[in-house]
Request: fold
Amino acid sequence: MSAPLLDVRDLVVRHGTTTAVDHVSFTLEAGETLALDGPSGCGKSSTALAILQLRRPDSGEVHFEGRELTSLSERELRPIRPRMQPVFQDPYGSLSPRHRIRDAVAEPLRVQGHRPTPAQIAELLDRVGLDPSYGDRRPHELSGGQCQRVGIARALASGPRLLVLDEPVSALDPSVRAGVLNLLADLRDELGLGYLFICHDRAVVRHFADRVLEMRDGRISSGRNPRPRAAGPR
Amino acid sequence: MESETLISVRDLRIAFAGVEAVRGVSFDVRAREVFALVGESGAGKSLTARALLGMLPREASVTGTVHPDLSDARGRRIALVPQDALSALSPVHPVGDQLAAAVRSVARVSRKEARARAVTALDRVGIADASRRARAYPHEYSGGMRQRAVVAMATINEPDILVADEPTTALDTDRREQVLQLLAEQRESHGTALVLVTHDMDAVRRHAHRVLVMYAGRAVETGPARDVLARPRAPYTAGLLACLPQHTRVRRLATLPGAPPPPDALPPGCAFAPRCPLATDVCHHEEPQPTGERAVACHHGEKL
Reply:
């Protein structure tokens, strides 16, 4: 059996004297959606940041596509980062107020040396349920929900293998949320993407996740199947 | 539930630089009810709610009526429960001082009396050891306690109307329910009406008496929450409800095709027509007017 897409071993993250993530271990296969559920402050987001190496963990290992990340330098991580993309809860914070939306969406591609065409940008915007005319706008002209869709379009732009989705749909409107969940499901199934899906909405978790890990006080308190998976193409 | 009307909105229109974001909304909020303003981002629900409080941006041009005008009675007869509890509290003053200041801003009472009311208010929203916690700063509160403190601040002067703008979006499932429960208790103990601005249809289902569904700046349907959720008449409402994740697994969720139109590029006729499965020629030419008991703004409302 080949290595899992993501293999987290004994991850520890401390904030001062507080242990936010306390020896957390799990694996995530390509094509799988693993939900992290738990109350605010239980360590879900700290786990996500440590996996992405955006906040280096205090100890433990993170194996992604067979490579151990915690020992890599920033330079060594650079070619890996496009393959593991975050989507955060607050996309206002990750969009420059001065950039037009189309530039924000194009940025991850430009960083890799690509020059996305207007049609590609329009397609990305369309995929997340935004009218392509929004490409000309700036973040302050968009609602929070619309900004979040831009954040998802950006994450999808660089062709990732793993998406770390930190409350990605909590701020979205129901119809957009449904469309984004369907879109994420399609991408997962078509491209074999793995999702670490941090979400506190149980109805959404039940609908969307293959497995659920419950976190409490920095530890995995239980793993459960949200429900038996209905028969269907996988 | 027929009771006294506390505030009436008639043909409210809110425009920015000539572009209408709210396009003729009318409704009443009655005493003791939970009135939900639902709709998706950009539908105009937050602007409509802010019009109740007289808290619209200065550059907004407003026509229509909001009666009575409670903008001078803000904090006293009408109050806002903001979405973001952390930024609603000053980081440099103890929570109790902030509540006491809210009391003294509307009532001529002694400092001591204001402090006592602050402690009572914190106690009432379930903050344990309230007299000690009143001396603590917001950063010493947990997220849930801050949310409670903000509810205490909004309710401390016992307003007739509380406007809660997406009060639960950032909260986890358990805490979301706690806040709504807390707001419901305030409503019952003081007869306060609650205007709940939300896109959380579960919250509407569990807490609202009446609901007004907005789309592209207009009300598409108004009525008792139970009826609207069980038997939506406007295709938009029906589509919105179909999008919700159900307890049973389905491969795909239903969606609405396309996206809401930007306010400066509304389609002719019914703004929902380009996304509507029932749309016919007339929908693309003529904007439907609200009709019937539910005030359904749809040329084909009777078909649902």
Remarks:
- Chain A touches chain B at residues 38-41, 89, 129-131, 133-134, 143-146, 170-171, 173-179, 181-182, 185, 200-204, 206-208, 227-230, 232 (CB under 8 Å).
- Residues 228-234 of chain A have pLDDT under 50 and may be disordered.
